[in-house]
Amino acid sequence: MDVKITGADIPLSADESSLIICESTGSRPPATLTWWIDDAQVIEAARQIVQDGNTSRSSLQLQPREHHDGAVLSCRAENSLLRATAIEDSKKLRVFCEFCTLVRFLAMLRWICILPQLLVYAYAAASMSSKGDFHV
To answer: Ig-like domain spans which residues (predicted)?
Structure first.
């Protein structure tokens, strides 16, 4: 029995759908295929058994997010008649995000703008608390 993932080698774009295929050959009956990202099973996969009887094919319509960058995508093939014989093919996902760097920068900039105000409030609260005029 053999299993292979195709379509996950290219860099993927965050929030854009990509079709990834897993194919298993040499199993009778045809292997049951499941998808995994790191240790979590992916449920949204379509399964198709090719007509020759010993080939299984599963397609995954993946819409990766930025946090999927570096995650491991696996396709696991199992023969229902042979217990504990699962084999898998895995690919490390490369997910690019066109605006993610800008969004992170803007979030950091927001904190830089808010931080002085927070420090002034904390200083005022601490000095008022030490005089007994303010309670938090």
So the answer is: 1-94
